[in-house]
Amino acid sequence: xxxxxxxxxxxxxxxxxxxxxxxSQIPQSRRITLxxxxxxxxxxRCGATLLLALSLLLSLTNQGVVMGxxxxxxAITPSGIGVTMILCWHTHQRKE
Length: 96
What we know:
Layout lengths: L1 H22 L2 H8 L7 H23 L1 H31 L1
Helix pairs in contact: 1-3, 1-4, 3-4
């Protein structure tokens, strides 16, 4: 059971990291926050890198080096699609 929980935690860290990476882009940040002043992109990108590295580390320690790297690599695509869908939904909901 602990294997599944750590996999879910690694997946959640990856989603948060990709979200921070998406919000570090200035046009996307303005679209979501509705302000001209956005947080520093360097801080968001460093945070995203840290979250993605923690996700990889958690996956590698839980599953082993080879299988952890495969699982982490395969989890990037659904995480990215999920972040894209969340950002598109947020923009669509705001327009209504």
